[in-house]
């Protein structure tokens, strides 16, 4: 009789693991963001258009950091994940979804879409402002080759050239390189 009950619950779409469903829903929202934002997964914790998504993305980064630091110490990792969730809305929802295996699977799924684990530092506001202008340019013109005299964003063409020089001199951070490459940045404009 229990099998029939389970079958009926499955037939009506019963959610057996609410935490996992919440994670999947946020993951889908991140993919929608990525589609809208020209292949970028760079969502900041204070993202105005979807604050809940921004907070979720930040939580993934925190958990990833904990996961990476713990290495093979599974018990310490489980405790760290439990503590990280205790400060969130998930605290009252039991231990579902907090296993090391689940976390590893989630990290793998996020990696598969190019998730940005270490976003540029807050101190890089000027760089990010220019990057956002470049993203807008790419969205409008489908090109990263900004002319020097582009009047809608004065100085953007020079900034793009500076990024090429910085890349050549190896002074860009890996996060900056990732962000530029995520919008199809051309490192050698002479080609």
UniProtKB/TrEMBL annotation:
It comes from Grammatophora oceanica. Signal peptide: none annotated. InterPro entries: Helicase_assoc. Residues 20-115, 124-185 form the Helicase-associated domain. PANTHER family: HELICASE-ASSOCIATED, HELICASE-ASSOCIATED DOMAIN-CONTAINING PROTEIN. This is Helicase-associated domain-containing protein. Pfam families: HA. It comes from the Eukaryota.
């Amino acid at each position: 009789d229990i099998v029939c009950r389970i079958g009926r619950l499955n037939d009506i779409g019963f959610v057996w693991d609410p935490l996992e469903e919440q994670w999947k829903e946020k993951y889908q929202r991140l993919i929608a963001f990525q589609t809208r934002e020209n292949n970028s997964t760079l969502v900041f914790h204070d993202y105005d258009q979807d604050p809940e998504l921004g907070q979720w993305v930040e939580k993934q980064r925190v958990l990833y950091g904990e996961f990476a630091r713990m290495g093979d110490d599974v018990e310490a990792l489980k405790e760290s994940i439990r503590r990280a969730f205790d400060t969130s809305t998930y605290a009252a929802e039991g231990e579902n979804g907090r296993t090391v295996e689940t976390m590893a699977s989630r990290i793998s799924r996020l990696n598969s879409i190019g998730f940005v684990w270490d976003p540029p530092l807050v101190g890089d506001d000027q760089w990010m402002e220019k990057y956002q202008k470049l993203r807008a340019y790419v969205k409008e013109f489908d090109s990263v080759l900004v002319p020097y005299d582009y009047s809608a964003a004065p100085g953007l063409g020079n900034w793009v050239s500076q990024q090429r020089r910085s890349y050549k001199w190896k002074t860009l951070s890996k996060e900056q390189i990732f962000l530029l490459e995520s919008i199809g940045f051309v490192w050698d404009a002479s080609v």
